[in-house]
Amino acid sequence: MIHSLFLINSSGDIFLEKHWKSVVSRSVCDYFFEAQERATEAENVPPVIPTPHHYLLNVYRHKIFFVAVIQTEVPPLFVIEFLHRVVDTFQDYFGVCSEPVIKDNVVVVYEVLEEMLDNGFPLATESNILKELIKPPTILRTVVNTITGSTNVGDQLPTGQLSVVPWRRTGVKYTNNEAYFDVIEEIDAIIDKSGSTITAEIQGVIDACVKLTGMPDLTLSFMNPRLLDDVSFHPCVRFKRWESERILSFIPPDGNFRLLSYHVSAQNLVAIPVYVKHNISFRDSSSLGRFEITVGPKQTMGKTIEGVTVTSQMPKGVLNMSLTPSQGTHTFDPVTKMLSWDVGKINPQKLPSLKGTMSLQAGASKPDENPTINLQFKIQQLAISGLKVNRLDMYGEKYKPFKGIKYMTKAGKFQVRT
Amino acid sequence: MPYLGSEDVVKELKKALCNPHIQADRLRYRNVIQRVIRYMTQGLDMSGVFMEMVKASATVDIVQKKLVYLYMCTYAPLKPDLALLAINTLCKDCSDPNPMVRGLALRSMCSLRMPGVQEYIQQPILNGLRDKASYVRRVAVLGCAKMHNLHGDSEVDGALVNELYSLLRDQDPIVVVNCLRSLEEILKQEGGIVINKPIAHHLLNRMSKLDQWGQAEVLNFLLRYQPRSEEELFDILNLLDSFLKSGSPGVVMGATKLFLILAKKFPHVQTDVLVRVKGPLLAACSSESRELCFVALCHVRQILHSLPGHFSSHYKKFFCSYSEPHYIKLQKVEVLCELVNDENVQQVLEELRGYCTDVSADFAQAAIFAIGSIARTYTDQCVQILTELLGLRQEHITTVVVQTFRDLVWLCPQCTEAVCQALPGCEENIQDSEGKQALIWLLGVHGERIPNAPYVLEDFVENVKSETFPAVKMELLTALLRLFLSRPAECQDMLGRLLYYCIEEEKDMAVRDRGLFYYRLLLVGIDEVKRILCSPKSDPTLGLLEDPAERPVNSWASDFNTLVPVYGKSRWATISKCHGAERCGPELPKTSSFAASGPLIPEENKERVQEVPDSGALMLVPNLQLTADYFEKTWLSLKVAHQQVLPWQGEFHPDTLQMALQVVNIQTIAMSRAGARPWKAYLSAQDDTGCLFLTELLWKPENSEMQISVKQNETRTETLKSFISVLETVIGTIEEIKS
Questions:
Q1: Any idea where the MHD domain is (chain A) (predicted)?
Q2: Do A335 and A387 fall into the same domain?
Q3: Residue B329 in contact with partner chain A when CB distance is under 8 A
């Protein structure tokens, strides 16, 4: 299915290759480089590139292209999902997934890839099973390994592979039994000039960290399950039970996993927690323009908005900007024309604002495109959709676990047009 | 990294590997081996230390073993004789008490890829299939496929295949999926693994135990199973229901495809499924991963071919966000075009209007073309937007708007007035060939409604010497002659100048010939010129025919969840054909019909060879006269009798095609102008029994394919077949001449 994998950095060097069937010559990547050149920007390289004898499917993450070479007809989503899984695994193993880190850990990378695919077919991709096969390198372990000469390969086969529940290993034991759930919601929105919402939707996930002894059977119920339009589950969730009772019933995997992801879209009005007031004006044949933006809270249910950053790509005609923020720091890169303003917390009593002037190219007509403002923010202890967990019960084991639920709202692709 | 001078590196490493002091120190030894691997991954040729690495494989250190095996798998094909030395160690490791070591050794042995290794790996694989650790069984099952490939596609080992079939009942889910994968590869020549009823039901029951990759692949294998009864069919669909809600988009798409294929006789079930996957599909369209978004969008477009209104209420999901990559934006704009209906047209147009001033010229132009295609239904609103865009006086915008106008007046004559009013002034902002051609064409055809048309053309005539594009000069000649017919007084003088220039000074032969042709035509008399040049100014029927009818779901169900929606069928077909050719040696020449029939014909008359295909059962009547109206009426009243797609790479010359078709007595009724994309032609022919063949050729440059649809007024399969073979031969021949 997946013949070979090439890792290519954005300057076009192949810094790692792995072949699962016969060795495919590096020259196959020339077609990729051609496409890369044509695309001008790395983000714009098309994900599927046909060549006379192969197809190249790639994903671009952490400034690295992961290029899979395939020779037969495959479901494209399958390969793309798998490549993302590879990246996730690397990130999980090394903390960050970057070119220097992969180069430093090339041996572990190879070991992991060897276990993830055999003959081009996905084999072990669950991170907790992989980690039992090949232990991730940590600073401590590297030191210990160097001293004692021991290795980072597990001596035991992962026991989970023999369990009746394929996603959970048998014989799990903890002294502290705990189950934590994080409800994280991201708002994707486009807000128009006048401040009204063009599109808005919420993409939510519930990530869990479950450390429970034995084979616990959990049920999780919501106060308002009807909110969830479109839900997809971890394979452990009993689908029939959800269909009939709207209750999540499952035997959890051990450790970290994503229990479910959901969407709340236009049908249930999405609350927008921030607003941006802007006044950006270019005047014809004048070398100065005015720039002013203010950010304020809207529907936040009394919670504070934190970690606010504003970025905006200014038109080409803007030479420089002289601005003063009422709080936070700002930068403007005159080469890329990227303005970014790190606001921090929003204090509703004293709204943060950024004011000043822009110097424009003299003599040129006024730019006809208006800059778009991208917003990042975080709100702790709030799920903006109003989703609330009602209760969590455990069956099948006798002890009393510690349970915790956390809510968080973040900006996804949140942009304001001006 | 030292790509040059790798000999020094090899020498140094070789020395280190042989050093007994290093060999004694486990850590240092492993570090040297790691360096070898590191160089190998960077593409350096490390085959020089093969001997030393083989020696290093005899160790208890499992990491070192892994590294050495990795090395051996890469270089064994280069050093088969030395690799045989390593086999011994590997064989011993295959009976190690640690299942990981057994698995590792077996996997490495199967991946050695060198001739002669088969006899050594057969026994360990057979043992591995019965191993008590599932880890080893997984490796052994795939090993069977690798061993078969090493044999070079010779005979299939029946006993092994039976063993694998029985392992489908293994309790480990990954062993089951690996069995499927392995059997598929071993039985490739016989069409892959056979899924009968017991296997199908067994797999269905195991589905929930598999990981997402396994599920996606099993869903793919289940496509081959044909349920016996309706009852069974619906049982299966019920079992699979929950996979439509899976967390993995790949599984959702796989399940959707299986539903569509299994329920091919129940259109309402198919529609129902498509309604149910709407949610997951839309979620994938706004996924974090750009690549997933892109593929999902391609599938959305495919669904829209059959259910045009399917996503209309979600049109806002397809609005582009500033930070998205181009390929996604372009797909979204295409989707938006197809979603437009009376309720959302206003919002969609406003959104597209915003894109027209995007920083990226390509994206802006795509948005303008999109507005142009919406204009076929919502003419007035779109023309107004396009007219406003002209006011921006941006070069890249104006040229595309004018091209859109040209196509629009041809399809929707009702907007001609508005377009004519918008045109004055644009000539200042057009520099490229396509834009100029479009503007000149509009000025020529509709010049009598544009007051300043002669003056604009005069500017072009003045500057004709510095004009770089011959196509623009050709267009200018035709346009000026047309305008001369309606406004002779203003044009006569400059027409003379232009003709003089073209005939006396122009260096491009085509332009000169065109000039001479018009000159001679004018000599014949003005009535003759009128008869030839004043063709209809619009053809609304073309738009009607071009409007793609709703395609049945079954026409694309088998392509769903493959690369086809992403890149179009013909491309993949050409790739697979190349593989076929590689494997089975030289391909037969395409024109085998010519070659075979050649010698039978006396050589004195070459012309007759051309007629061979139709001299058999089929005899086409020469000089068939059909009016366009009659053609259209008949075309619309008949059903498509045959449809097929031929590959067509590269450029296209309608004139050559028309001439070639004329030779075999196929008449061209109408065709798009040269350079139009997609290009269309309507052909007609009649055989001696009065059977009429109406044909549509549709050339889509983006898929590089030519789609042929033939309709027949009497149903006769025999003659239809011969007619199609004639067509194919003509198109095939032209394609060859061209390349």
A1: 176-417
A2: no
A3: no
